[in-house]
Amino acid sequence: MSSVPSPALVGRASELRTVIDVITRPPAVVLVEGEAGIGKTRLVRAALGHVPPGDRAVLLGYCHQIREPFPYGPVFEALRDIAGRLPAAGALNPVIGALGDYLPELAGALPPAPPPLNDPRAERHRVFRAIRALLAAVAPAVLVIEDLHWADEGTRDLLRFLIDQPPAGLSLVVTYRREEQSGSSLGRAYRHHPDTTSVVVPLVPLDVTDVGSLAGALLNRSDLSTGFVTRLHERTAGIPFVVEEVVRSLADAEEPEALDRVGVPLLLREAMAERMAGLTSAAVRTVQVAAVLRVPAGEQLITAAGGDSSGLGEALRAGVLHEDPGGRYGFRHALAQQAVYDAIPGPERRSAHERVMAALAAMDSPPLVQLAFHARQAGDIEAWLRHGTAAAHRAAALGDNAMAIEIIEDMLDDPDLPPAERAPLALKLSRFARTGLSHQRVVRMLRHVLRDDFLSPEARAEARLDLGLVLSNQAGDTAGGRPEIMTAVEELTDQPSLAARGLACLALPGWGTESLPQHEQWMARAEALVADGDNPELSTAVLVNRASFQAAIGAKDAFAVAETLPVGDNRLAVRREITRGYANLYDSLITLGLFTEAERAAREGRRLAVETGAEYCAYLIDVSSIRMEWLTGRWEGLRERAIAMSDVVAGTPQIAVDVWLVLGMLALATGEWDEAARHFQGAGLDAPDNGYVPIVETAAAGMLELHLARGALDDAVAEVERAIFRLRRKAVWVWGAHLIAPAVTALGFAGRLEEAADLVEEYAAGIAGRMAPNAHAALDAARGALASAGGCHDEAAAHYARAREAYAEMPQPYAAAHAGEGEARSRLARGDTGAGAAFADIAERYGELGATHDAARCRRVLRDIGVEVQLPRGRRAKTSALSQRETEVARLVALGRTNKEIADVLFLSTRTVESHVATVLRKLGVRSRTEVAPPS
């Protein structure tokens, strides 16, 4: 067999240029996908070879088929060698200190470790932020994570976090096998950050010409026959690695028939067998040990498991084994490992796994996952169960709940699992899932478990409760989860504490499709179950939900109930429940329009979150604060803050709805209608029965306003009917504060005045006696809309004026401007000469907020009545700076809007817009609309 050099990168010129271009323009994300052996790693290495030495750090991390419960291991593996690029510890972001235990090699170069949070989700997010801050500190850098298809869910979550908002100097490169993924390699549809250079590079098999070029480079020949190349392509399917292995195994390449000796479909197996045949018995034994180990291992472990140091050196020199960073040895490719492993006779494989188990068990800290794997392969079921269960508990203790779930799932999937072990494992799975983040496979597994009849009634009820909680919380499927919780509650007759937990979840009225009386019944049952109990944590949880319940509906005793929370209790679990209560109160008080009280609840909640380490509750408060800022008119930079918050809550759909609502409302106010519609769908309109009803109803109000702005009256009325149906079904009318006035307007436009009048009265009755300033101000606005639709303009102006004053008092400046606009229109309709000044004032208020579409609508009225409109002008940094109107036009051009669409949004003629667009292009120095970037 001839000796051949390492092959050139063949057939990948375009892909190579793309990867080089992207990684040299950070922040950047490159996803390289393709089947095993297609050349993903080779492409990445070639691209890194074009990065000037010392120009940026190159950090390499690898995912392995068998992994131990070390959270985010591939990323930490990549970070271990960056000490030389770190600034002094005092110059680093203090949050980086959270990585000291994960990166002991860098402990002396990192800031002090912050105190523990005692909340796995909060700790997880702090670690994510610390990793991002560390990468920012060593930037510019290229972080390469190989073989993402073998990654744990925690690593995927971390990479999603980095991809959603990467540090400015980071280029992230990820390789994975597409065929081994169920959907996206990152677990959800990949949407890169708008400021990130991003590309997906799919690698496909080589064509005949490229196979010939690769084979020629391998054999250092340019005279390969067409027949040989064609046959080689047929036999290898154009997969570069298989081409390489087959060609390396050939004695000659004179005839196409030479390839027949390799065989199909065992090409790679036979190629590896040929290479193994030239090794001594010591080297063969060592290679086989490496194949049984499956993951790269050190020399000591390989020899302890039956290998040989001299054999290891021989295998390395022959290119059968490959040295990985850190003095570990394994195969260059998983296909090679599998080929060797499959060639070992069955009894010898079993004995080899037993030897590996003994070597692993003798280590100071035995890798439990590997022990479980090798025990299973050796047929030792008792050891498999022992090590597997221990591995799951260790993973959970380390905060890697996703891996704990994965281990138990795999054990439950095994057909040789003893029947007596299924019930205990099924309950372990459900308990891990209750507090974990993974849900897709867990839901499937729990449903499968519940279909079987091996569980006791008590275990079945607990598993069903956990399924309901996972569906309702992690999966965001309240429509599917709540019936499971209801069934479980009825089955948990002998476990009142678990039943109370389920009932307390059902009782919160913002979720589900049940009416308020039904929620009240559940709340009362939960309270009864804990009344005589001795579980302070559970009793506090139920009391928190009662306070949350009263606040959510605007009950006047909500504050009195909240004052009974045991805030002086020193038990950590109790105080965390109280923290959750303040987060819930903050959310509900914002909805009610009690902003001063809401801020007090937020301050108390944040204080308790710091004291108890319940940072997750602090995140809930932060997300609600986005909505608070929108309502109270703090719009400066709000869009950017909302987008930044979205990366924190991307994996928790119930929390994210506030962010999408606010982004939708901001887009509506600036005439970005397609964007607004998309955000409103994300806020819950895509599946309203699954959503958080107060937010869903507000999103429906935004969508209704959007339909009215577009002149789609039929769509607007349909939106009204759907939203009012949900309010009537739930019977919590205070949640319709944003909806009621535009609903009456839409019904009035449709000529359905009697129906509109009935709706106003129904709403008035529904909020009577409720502690809800927002709802009462909305009632005045709705009465103004009803009077206006009936032509009673004096009455309408009076109602609108009361609404405007009430909103201004809260304060809600945007809602106050809307009410003021209604008042001005009513005054104009009755011939009031001061209406023009009122419109000018309202236009200015809209403009100050940034509601450019609303401001343009008022200025259109002023033009129609002959009042000169003067746009406010800011200071210009240079003569080519855009005016305010040109900035508005540029923003819509950057969004891809046509001149007609821009004219509709800004209430201008198409000809005027054409003139503005031409000026924008000239001032920005660009040739076409597609080159216009959104103004900053």
Automatic annotation (TrEMBL):
Pfam families membership: AAA_16, GerE
Name of the protein: DNA-binding CsgD family transcriptional regulator/tetratricopeptide (TPR) repeat protein
Residue ranges the record marks as coiled coil: none
Listed GO MF terms: adenylate cyclase activity; ATP binding; DNA binding
Entry GO CC: cytoplasm
Any single GO BP term: regulation of DNA-templated transcription
Protein's organism: Sphaerisporangium krabiense
Gene3D superfamilies hit by this protein: Tetratricopeptide repeat domain (1.25.40.10), Winged helix-like DNA-binding domain superfamily/Winged helix DNA-binding domain (1.10.10.10)
Residue ranges of every copy of the HTH luxR-type domain listed in the record: 875-936
Domain of life per record: Bacteria
TPR repeats: 657-690
Keywords: ATP-binding, DNA-binding, Nucleotide-binding, TPR repeat
